[in-house]
Amino acid sequence: MVAVIVIIGVLVLLGIVFAVLYNRLVGRRNQVDNAWSQIDVQLKRRYDLIPNLVETVKDYMQYEQETLTKVTEARAAAMQAGQAGPQAQAKAENMLTDTLKSLFAVVENYPDLKANQNVLSLQEELTATENKIAFARQFYNDSVLTYNNAIQMLPTNIIAGMFNFTGRQFFDAPEAETVVPKVDLR
Amino acid sequence: MYEQIRRNRRASWLLMGVVVAILTGLGYVIGLAWTGSNGGGLGFLGLFGVAAIVWSVIGYYSGGRMVLAVSGARRISHAEEPQLWNVVEEMTIAGGLGQPPAVYVIDDPATNAFATGRDPAHSSIAVTRGLLDKLNRDELQGVIAHETAHVRNYDIRFATLIGILVGLIALIADFFLRSRWSGFGGRRSGDGGGGAGVIIMVVAVVFALLAPLAASIVQFTISRRRELLADATAVELTRNPLGLAGALQKIAADPAKLRTGNRATAHLFIVNPLRKVREAAGLFDTHPPIQMRIDLLLAMAHGEAAANAGAAGGDPHTAA
Q1: Are strands B124-128 and B102-106 parallel, antiparallel or unpaired?
Q2: CATH top-level class of A2-162
Q3: Can you say whether residue B194 is alpha, beta or left, with left for phi > 0 and alpha for psi between -120 and 50 degrees?
Q4: Are the beta carbons of A35 and B94 separated by less than 8 Å?
Q5: How far, in Å, CA of B189 to CA of B185, rounded?
C-alpha cells in the first residue's frame, strides 16, 4: 500500500517538474520572438525620424545636397530591403547608419546648424534610436543564448527533443564597408 | 563579467541562508529554554513570523512612494529631460524590462541616483540635477544601467526580505531578553531539570545578545554584494564598463553632500550619500569602497580587451 502511494507521489512530482520545465522553454522561445520584433519597432522609429531631420537641415545646407540625397535614398532602400530577408535588411540598415554618420559629420561645419535647438534635439533622438536598435539586437542575442542553452542542456533538452524545440540563430550584423565620412568643404 | 554576476548572486543567497539559520536557531533555542519542549520553540517562531510579515508587507507596498517623497524627487516626462528619458528607455530595452521605470529628478547639486520599487512593473529611478549636469551620455548610461540592474535583479525586494528577517531576529531577541529579566521565562527553567536547564538558558541568552548584531553584519555584507552584482549586471546591459567606471570616478571626486540623504534611505543610492571623504572597507558599510568598484570595472574592460586581442590572434600585451 505504501509502495503505491510512493509511486504515485513520485509520478506527480515528475509531472510537476515536467510542466515547469516545458513552460520555461515556451517562455524563453516567446522571449526570443518578442525580442526580434522589438528590433523592428526601433528600425521603424528611425524611418519616421529621418524625414524630419532632412527637412530641418535642408535649407541651411544648400551645398550638401549630395549627402542629403544619400540619406534619403539609403532610407528608402532599407525600407524595401525588409522583403529580401534579415541579412539583406541588416546590411541596408547599416548603410543607412553610415549615411547618417556622414550627415552629422557635415553638420559640424555649420555653426548655426550646430546650435539650432531642433537639430540638437533631433540629433539626440537619432542617437537614442541608434542605441535602441543596438540594444534591441543585443537583447535578442541574449535571449537566443538563454534559449539555446536551455534546449541543449540537461534536463530541459529532454523536453525540447520531445516537442521539437529548435535552436535559434544569433543576429550577426554584417559589416558594411568602413566608409570614412567624407567632409566636402564645397 | 558573467563570473562576477554568478558569484555575487550565489554569495547573497548563501548569506540569506545564514540569516535564516540565525533566525531559526534563535527562535528554537529561546522556545526550548522557555517551554522546555521542541513544540514550544517552533510555536514561538511561527507567532513572531506572522506578526513581522504583516508589518513588513505594509512597508513593502508603500515604501517606494515614501522614499521618493522624502528625497524631494520630481517626476519628469520625455519633453522635460529627453536625454535622461532616452537613456532609461535604452536600458529598459537592453534589460528586456517590458516597460520603463518612472523617471524622477532630485533638484540637488550632489551627484547621486537611486532605484526603488518591488518589481520591474512598479519601479522608479531618480537622479540628481548634479548628476545630470556633470556626467556625459556614456557615464549617465552606466549609472542608469546600474539602477536598472537593481530593478531587474529584484534587489529592492531582496533587501526588504532581508530586512524583515533581521528585524524579526532583533524583535525575538529583545522580547526574550526583556521577559527573561522580568522573571516571566525564568520560572519555567527552574523545573527543567537542574543543570541542563540552566545551560540551555545561558546559551539562549548569549544567542539573544549576539544574534541581532551578527544578523546586522550579514545584512550589510549582503548589501555590498548586491551592489557589486548591480555593477556587473550594468556592464552586462551596456557592454561598456568604462561608462560606469567614469561615472563612479566623477561621483567619488565630487564633495557635495546630498541634502536629503539620511540613514534610512542611504542604502538605496548608487554611492552612499553619507560617506566621508576617505573610505575604508567597513563591516557596517552598505556600499563597497568606490575605488574597489572602479578597479573591478577597469579589470573587466582590460579582460575584454585582452580577449578581443586574443581572438584576433594577437598577444594581449602588445596589442594597442
Answers
A1: parallel
A2: mainly alpha
A3: left
A4: no
A5: 7
Does residue B130 lie within any of the structural domains? Answer: yes
**What 3-state DSSP class applies to A42?**
helix
- For residue range A21-63, list pLDDT tens digits in order: 999 899 999 999 999 999 888 888 888 888 887 787 777 777 7
Picking from A94, A40, A97, A81, the residue whose alpha carbon sits closest to that of residue B93 is A40
| Residue A8: pLDDT over 70 | yes
Which cell numbers in the block locate residue B170?
532583533
Which tens digits make up the pLDDT trace of B173-226?
887 777 765 554 444 444 445 567 778 888 888 888 888 888 888 888 888 888
ipTM entry = 0.78
* Residue B319 included in any domain: no
User: What is d(CA B196, CA A137) in angstroms, rounded to the nearest whole number?
Assistant: 67
Stretch (H or E) spanning B84:
helix B82-95
What is the reported pTM?
Answer: 0.79
Which residues in chain A are contacts of B95 at CB distance < 8 A? 139
> Over the Cα atoms of chain B, what is R_g?
23
- Looking up cell 542617437 gives A127
Q: How many residues does chain B have?
A: 320
CA B86 to chain A, closest CA, distance in angstroms equals 6
Q: Is residue B76 part of a domain?
A: yes
Q: In this complex, is the C-beta atom of A130 within 8 Å of any C-beta atom belonging to chain B?
A: no
Task: DSSP letter for B269, please.
Answer: B
By the 10 Å C-beta count (0-12 exposed, 13-18 middle, 19+ buried), A6 is classed as exposed
- Catalytic residue, chosen from B147, B227, B279, B304, is B147
Domain count, chain B: 1
Residue B6 domain-assigned (yes or no): yes
Rounded distance, CA B57 to CA B15, Å?
22
Clarify whether B304 is annotated catalytic: no
Q: Which three cell numbers stand for residue B189?
A: 527553567
- Cα of A85 vs its chain's centroid, Å: 14
- Residue (of A70, A50, A32, A176) closest to A125 by Cα position: A50
In contact, B82 and A121? CB cutoff 8 Å: yes
**CA-to-CA distance for A148 and A131, rounded, in angstroms?**
25
Residues of chain B with pLDDT under 70: 1-3, 34-42, 44-45, 48-64, 180-195, 261-267, 275-281, 309-320
DSSP per-residue codes, B153-217:
TTHHHHHHHHHHHHHHHHHHHHHHHHHHHTTTTHHHHHTTTTHHHHHHHHHHHHHHHHHHHHHHH
Q: What is the pLDDT of residues A98-126, one digit of tens each?
A: 888 888 887 777 777 777 777 788 888 88
Range of the domain at B170: 2-300
